[in-house]
Design a protein that fits this description.
With about 260 residues, the chain is an alpha/beta fold. It contains ten helices and eleven strands.
Length: about 260
């Protein structure tokens, strides 16, 4: 294992590390991303090996030391000051890892497919992905206007489930036109989800946090569906809305 001490923010590797953490275009160009924290890195090890790890010299914990002993890759050590400047978090997780992002694979058309139109907040996206994995969603298709699937914040929110959940970024108009099953849009004015018989093979379309689903996509859906809400509440968080739907789908199919 090669180990290096980085003492300056002008170090070329450190500069690239900052770009990798903060720039979606740089991540896409490099085909890499950053995992922030020991739990996320440990979860990743069942899918592959990191390219490199970066450790905060001020933090020494048995969990991190054990993790480092399992990783066969180059290691870089930073002062606490340099380490904390990389992360979006207010406190140091103690360790980061650079990993290669997996190549996109064809999504499954059977089962429940989740279509995401312009989800902007990486935290919402991460939460939706984690819930999707837990409720047996077969594939997640993101529009090109969604938050970055591989940003460190999205990965923290999802706990890295996109390494095992089929996810891809596509033109949703084209995808819907080529899909052979029903596409149901989650809107404010559709049929109650609790009165709708959900099919084993279907797609659910969910829109942007503020503007909802794009009008051009609504033109090609099979039907609309809504979540019943108390009269004093106009809407709920998109992550919560997705959770209700996918678990109702999971419940109906599990009850059969």
């Amino acid at each position: 294992m090669n180990e290096k001490l980085i003492e300056s923010k002008s170090n070329p590797f450190y500069k690239n590390l900052k770009k990798l953490y903060s720039s979606s275009s740089f991540r896409e160009n490099q085909k890499q991303t950053i995992l922030d924290g020991p739990h996320l890195i440990q979860s990743f090890l069942q899918y592959g090996s990191p390219v490199a790890f970066i450790k905060d010299l001020s933090i020494n914990s048995p969990e991190i030391e054990s993790l480092v002993s399992q990783i066969n890759c180059s290691g870089y050590f930073l002062s606490h000051e340099l380490f904390i400047q990389l992360s979006e978090l207010k406190s140091s997780t103690g360790i980061l890892a650079i990993v290669d992002t997996p190549k996109a694979i064809p999504e499954k058309s059977d089962g429940l497919v989740l279509l995401l139109d312009g989800i902007q907040d990486p935290g919402n996206l991460g939460s939706i992905l984690r819930t999707s994995k837990a409720s047996n969603v077969s594939s997640v298709i993101l529009s090109k206007t969604c938050a970055d699937l591989w940003s460190p914040k999205t990965l923290r929110g999802s706990q890295g489930v996109q390494f095992s959940l089929q996810c891809s970024v596509q033109d949703l108009d084209e995808w819907i036109l080529n899909y052979k099953y029903d596409v149901i849009a989650l809107t404010l004015n559709g049929e109650s989800i609790f009165k709708k018989r959900l099919n084993s093979n279907m797609a659910i379309l969910v829109g942007n946090e503020g503007n909802g689903i794009s009008n051009h996509l609504l033109k090609n859906v099979t039907d609309t569906i809504s979540l019943p809400m108390h009269k004093d509440v106009e809407s709920i968080n998109v992550g919560a809305a997705v959770s209700v739907f996918v678990y109702e789908h999971y419940r109906q199919l599990s009850a059969d």
